[in-house]
Amino acid sequence: MLSPLAVMPEHHKRGIGSALVRHGLKALAERAVPLVFLEGDPGYYSRFGFVPGGDQGFRKPSLRIPDGAFQAIRLPDYEPWMTGTLVYAEPFWRHDAVGLRDPSIAPRWCPCCDVMRRPGGAAPPGCPGGRTSARPRDR
Ligand SMILES: CC(C)(COP(=O)(O)OP(=O)(O)OC[C@H]1O[C@@H](n2cnc3c(N)ncnc32)[C@H](O)[C@@H]1OP(=O)(O)O)[C@@H](O)C(=O)NCCC(=O)NCCS
């Protein structure tokens, strides 16, 4: 697991987060770790090669994690038999650090724009906006 990852707000946008992610992935690849998972915004982590874990045949460890936020990257030592359900170590559960604590703040799928949008988030012109729903495959 790469997450949780955070940079203090006063130091945002200086490349610190990217450096941490890239350094972490390099160190793990050098140790022959085959796969790295995280919970996070695909808008940020896709730049490093993370893609939704569900699209790669992995099952998320909790229904509190939105599909798009459950992400994985395959490193060079990955082999095709490596599939299944990600199981969090006990401290994740003990510290209530799994997924979204309040489901009402989870991003929702907008069928008009085909994007995930936070409740109350701005909708583009022509989009009915509030008509978001759970992703079809979540129903
Ligand atoms: C996400 C986070 C770690 C990035 O740290 P950072 O040091 O600012 O990252 P970098 O400087 O390498 O990259 C900044 C770029 O990422 C973008 N970015 C940050 N969060 C983003 C998000 N959720 N979606 C899309 N882009 C995002 C910034 O807009 C910025 O873009 P720019 O380079 O075009 O200006 C930091 O914003 C943070 O601590 N956020 C709160 C905690 C969090 O959300 N963690 C991720 C889940 S584990």
Explain this structure.
By secondary structure, this protein is an alpha+beta fold. The two termini are 27 Å apart. The longest helix has 15 residues, at 16-30. The protein has two domains: 9-98, no CATH class; 107-139, no CATH class. The model has no long low-confidence stretch (mean pLDDT 88). 17% of the residues lie in helices and 16% in strands. It has a three-stranded antiparallel sheet, with no helix packed on it. Strands 3-5 form a two-stranded parallel sheet. Strands 6-7 form a two-stranded antiparallel ribbon. The protein binds coenzyme A (COA). Coenzyme A (COA) binds next to helix 1 and helix 2.
Produce the secondary structure layout:
Elements: H1 16-30, E1 35-39, H2 42-45, E2 51-52, E3 58-59, E4 70-74, E5 84-85, H3 90-94, E6 108-110, E7 115-117
Parallel strand pairs: 3-5
Antiparallel strand pairs: 1-4, 2-4, 6-7
The structure holds coenzyme A (COA).
